[in-house]
Amino acid sequence: MPDGCVAAAALQVYCEPMVVNITAMPGLGDALEWVKHEISARVPKADLDQRDADYILEQLPGLWLLASLYFRADVRGLDRIPANGPVLMVGNHSGGNLPPDTFVFTLAFCSYFGVERPFYQLAHNLVVSMPGLGSLRKFGTVAANHDNATLALASGAALLVYPGGDYEVFRPSWERHDVDFGGRKGYVKLAREAGVPIVPIASVGGQEAALFLDRGQWLAKLLMVDKLARLKSVPILFAPPWGLTVSDFIPRLPLPTKVVIEVQEPIDAADIANADDDVINDKVLASLQGAVDRLGAERRFPVIG
């Protein structure tokens, strides 16, 4: 176990019972449910009309220039994505609450297929409800849940999902080339129900935008945000300009890491319909891990690429 995780592991032994005892206190359960309801009520509904093609067209040149210069964006294989119709794109996820992979791929997709093609991205409830981030909804970002995903695909849109979510995006930086959905495979059922193909999207570089030290799952339980806000991780990281930071909600400057993204071969909707979830999930993970290993081997140094 890395030295930085020893203290966290030791604390977990004592913190978990504390959480259980606190939540068992009389009357606290109702209070927690009220807080949970208030947080959920602030999450914007998936109004697909909030995506603004004119706004994207206006912002795209400047943002793509930023992505090209700052992250030295290299996106490959966009021609493997079906040219029209609904499609579920499934990626490995990196970079914390400022994920370069989502930023770069969204811009690349809109540049390649045009802003008129409907394209949505699923994100954590807190991300889409944070003040000042309304521009994300204009780019097509909606809260990550099954209903919103179904609605987007039913509209004929392309949809980008990251099954690993906060579990994967806050993994320690020394695990940066590990693809790990944390056992989540609901996306397979989503694709089967919608009758759409799955396109794996592999990326490297994003987890080098900061030095992630610990997922902080023990801290999420201690603070009870796992129950109140669906946050399974309160990460511990080192990033400019603050240095050592707990949680990733304090604005920070991502390191100018080189981001490389590669689209993999699609998995046909007919194959998904006739296979078990585990079979398709294993196929997606194998495709992503193989690509990440290959792309990672191209990198000579962290951040520099």
UniProtKB/TrEMBL annotation:
Protein name per UniProt: Phospholipid/glycerol acyltransferase domain-containing protein
GO CC, alphabetical: membrane
Source organism superkingdom: Bacteria
Molecular function per GO: acyltransferase activity
Classification via Pfam families: Acyltransferase
InterPro entries: Plipid/glycerol_acylTrfase
PANTHER family referenced in this protein's UniProt entry, alphabetically: MONOACYLGLYCEROL_DIACYLGLYCEROL O-ACYLTRANSFERASE, TRANSMEMBRANE PROTEIN 68
SUPFAM superfamilies: Glycerol-3-phosphate (1)-acyltransferase (SSF69593)
Phospholipid/glycerol acyltransferase domain residues: 87-206
